[in-house]
Design a protein that fits this description.
The chain has three domains: 92 residues, OB fold (Dihydrolipoamide Acetyltransferase, E2P) (Beta Barrel); 264 residues, 2-Layer Sandwich (BirA Bifunctional Protein, domain 2); 124 residues, GAD-like domain (Gyrase A, domain 2). Helices cover 29% and strands 24% of the residues. Bound molecules: aspartic acid (ASP).
Length: 588
């Protein structure tokens, strides 16, 4: 028996007990004739005491312990003289009678503390040491709890957890596939699933009725803080349902998870639902952060053609937001905001502002082009009060200008402290457009994926005006993050073929890529629909993290590399030969 207790469980009622503990040396300190060692395991930290007078040899050995040595001790639980109320075990200590070094350790490359001195790359290279830090470990514990509760909830609703293969064929979901060569089928490749989308639909055709899976998905995309090349979805599908049934089920699950995992009661009220059009109009985003207001006000009537400002007179969109109490912003602060919206990522041409003074008068950066009456109208349209700052963005591409204003709104929300990580604002965004135009591809693309059903009343517009067709698709948004999304699916082979046609697939190409699905639909496919949650995003929101990386045990860095395993890496020529793959010489 290596231990009788963990390092997190001893309390006053254990005083006098003889115990054996095992763990890592967090730190040692010498004070007079005493040596104190903090012993750590996953469960907590317990203080060990060695007394020079009582046992000099043992105390000497304790003095030689290094950080992160793995040790085992035997001793008696004692009430501490000076208690530490910051630690759950802070009332007690162990008077050690036997010490056994199980394994020595090199000095770790960074400190195992909440605020470690290790930079990101170093922490990732030695992730097994990084994971010993309580802050990181807690995220994994949260993730575990989250998954357990997801399973508990879905099981109670009759969902079956079914695994789908990882080596599949390519299914387009908007990203690039990772592909895997097949030795037994030279020249052929598997693709790793971007999601189990078509497979879960086939499970519905198979009569499984309610499916879920906590599953790895793979997308070869450019990476950002909330993206990883492999990530985990809570993937769900249901038969004989409409959009409302799915929304109801998963709203209930969300409330359940908030309560059991995060200790937050979201109340009885159903979540807000915004149509995609409305979300874009009021917030310039299909995932608006609703923790604060600062809604867009369209100012085309007020500012276009009512003065000599050419930029506005040519704009396809002019919109403003009103920042309460910011009229006193300094020149420097306004320059910062202007530089922010003009930065390459955001790409606005400029920022126009107007301060509402204490006497109600308006002072703007474009005063010289407008009469005081127009500026008064601006104030009214914005419902601005004395002390407010009006910020205005315009552009010749309305959608782009809205997105720029959205970034500015988020920036102001952060500056004003309105994006509190302990506040949660959830909503559904519904009625997405079916298609979006891709300049890169020169064709319409599915906004969600090609298996999404159009609104029944829009089906006839597929021939005449496909860009105006709305989809039976929905996203769940929390604090400005898309945490989940899904749709009602097409279950009719003819309609599915029609969508492939609109998306520019020839019938032959559609058959080649999706014949398996369209054929399955000919053998009795039930109406069905579902969604998938991004597990990593959910957990990082619950944990209050800025990046999904810290809730993943072994994440990849921004270049998609695992710096600990040094992957991806080159393979032996022998492996390439077996796969019949010739590499082109890389340019030096
Ligand atoms: N497969 C979809 C996705 O990964 C989710 C869904 O439609 O269920 O986004």
């Amino acid at each position: 028996m290596y231990r009788s207790k963990t390092c997190g469980e001893l309390r006053m009622n254990n005083v006098g007990e003889k115990v054996t503990l095992a763990g890592w040396v967090q730190r040692t300190r010498k004070m007079g004739g005493m040596t104190f060692v903090d012993l750590r395991d996953r469960y907590g930290i317990t203080q060990l005491v060695f007394n020079q007078e009582a046992n000099a040899e043992l105390c000497e050995r304790a003095n030689r312990l290094g950080r992160e040595f793995v040790i085992q001790v035997e001793g008696v639980v004692n009430e501490r003289f000076s208690k530490n109320d910051k630690m759950p075990t802070g009332d007690v200590e162990i008077i050690v009678s036997a010490l056994n070094v199980l394994n020595e350790a090199l000095t770790p490359p960074f400190t195992i503390e909440e605020n470690t001195d290790g930079g990101d790359d170093l922490r990732m290279k030695y992730r097994y040491i990084d994971l010993r830090r309580e802050v990181v470990r807690k995220n994994l514990e949260l993730r575990h709890k989250f998954c357990i509760e997801v399973r508990r909830f879905l099981d109670s609703k009759g969902f079956l957890e079914i695994e789908t293969p990882v080596l599949v064929g390519s299914t387009p979901e908007g990203a690039r596939d990772f592909i895997v060569p097949s030795r037994m089928n030279p020249g052929c490749f598997y693709a790793l699933p971007q999601s189990p989308q078509t497979l879960k639909q086939l499970l519905m055709v198979a009569g499984m009725d309610r499916y879920f899976q906590i599953v790895k998905c793979f997308r070869d995309e450019d990476l950002r803080a909330d993206r990883q090349p492999e990530f985990t979805q809570i993937d769900c599908e249901m038969s004989f349902v409409e959009q409302d049934d799915i929304i109801k089920t998963f709203e209930e699950m969300t409330k359940y998870l908030f309560k059991t995992v995060r200790g937050v009661d979201l109340g009885e009220q159903p979540f807000l639902r915004l149509s995609w059009n409305e979300a874009m109009r009021r917030f310039g985003s299909d995932k608006p952060d609703m923790r604060f207001g600062m809604e867009f006000v369209e100012l085309m009537d007020v500012l276009k053609g009512t003065g000599d400002f050419g930029v506005f007179n040519e704009a396809a969109y002019i919109g403003g937001i009103c920042a309460t109490g910011c009229a006193e912003y300094t020149r420097k602060q306004l320059d910062e905001l202007t530089n922010f919206v003009k930065s390459p990522q955001i790409g606005a041409k400029g920022l126009v502002y107007a301060r509402v003074n204490e006497d109600g008068s308006v002072k703007s950066s474009v005063d010289k082009f407008y009469t005081p009456e127009v500026l008064e109208k601006l104030k009214e349209a914005m419902q601005a009060k004395p002390g407010d700052l009006i910020l205005i963005i315009s552009g010749d591409d309305a959608m782009r200008a809205r997105k720029q204003l959205c970034e500015l709104r988020l920036q102001m929300g952060s500056r004003l402290g309105l994006r509190d990580k302990n506040k949660f604002a959830l909503l559904w965004v519904v009625d997405f457009p079916m298609f979006e135009w891709s300049d890169e591809e020169g064709r319409l693309m599915a906004m969600h994926h090609p298996f999404t059903a159009p609104k029944p009343e829009d089906v006839e517009k597929l021939d005449t005006d496909p860009a105006s067709v709305k989809a039976n698709a929905y996203d769940m948004v929390c604090n400005g993050v898309e945490v989940g999304g899904g749709s009602i699916r097409i279950h009719d082979a003819v309609l599915q073929a029609k969508i492939f046609d609109v998306l520019g697939f020839t019938p032959e190409k559609a058959q080649e890529q999706f014949g398996f699905l369209m054929n399955a639909f000919k053998y009795g496919a039930p109406p069905h629909g579902g969604l998938a949650y991004g597990l990593d995003r959910w957990v990082s929101i619950f944990a209050g993290l800025d990046s999904i990386r810290d809730c993943i045990a072994f994440p990849k860095n921004n270049a998609g590399r695992d710096v600990m395993l040094d992957a991806p890496s080159h393979v032996d020529q022998k492996q390439l030969d077996e796969l019949q793959i010739d590499l082109r010489p890389t340019e030096a």
